[in-house]
């Protein structure tokens, strides 16, 4: 893989099999990244190429398949399509790259005036914090393996903090804020799972 094929740039947010990461430093033979949990790691050229292949494979996987196939996962997708708010909390140093990545994944251009964008100013962090908020429900929500639901800022509101999930859902039709493209989302659901998606949508 040549230099031109590597997707990385400083401030860019990328995906890994375990969690997302933001590029902090970048040279032709060295890259420093910060993971969502705050841990930093340094990669040499060979490791950078491996990271690039993983990222490319994940993008392909996410575009072609839903990674979680339980019936409740599809109900959850339906529920989110009608009842969720996607917020992006952005340090000043990540705003430009986030907006560019968002446009690449969604096909839509937004600005910091968008109601789903919260600017944090210059703070001691590089990457965005991407959050999904939704009302409590009797539905048994399933966001996939290892993704936890926590309390939101107000009574009766829950949230999920997971940058990978947030961006994956943006790619299939969810949007920053609350105006999700339900038809686009529905088109990504396997035909034998549409009934579960509709159940969640209509709650």
Short description:
The chain has six helices and nine strands. It has helices spanning 45-64, 71-83, 95-106, 163-171, 182-187, 194-201, and strands at 13-14, 21-27, 30-35, 40-44, 85-91, 117-121, 129-135, 150-151, 157-161.
Please give the structural blueprint.
Elements: E1 13-14, E2 21-27, E3 30-35, E4 40-44, H1 45-64, H2 71-83, E5 85-91, H3 95-106, E6 117-121, E7 129-135, E8 150-151, E9 157-161, H4 163-171, H5 182-187, H6 194-201
Parallel strand pairs: 5-6
Antiparallel strand pairs: 1-2, 2-3, 3-4, 5-7, 7-9, 8-9
Helix pairs in contact: 2-6
Identify the notable features of this structure and list them briefly.
203 residues; 23% strand; SH3 type barrels; four-stranded antiparallel beta sheet; 2 domains; globular; alpha+beta
Give structural notes:
It is a single chain. The protein is an alpha+beta fold and 203 residues long. The protein has two domains: 62 residues, SH3 type barrels; 131 residues, no CATH class. A five-stranded mixed beta sheet has the order 6-5-7-9-8, with helices on one face. Strands 1-2-3-4 form a four-stranded antiparallel beta sheet. The termini are far apart. 27% of the residues are buried.
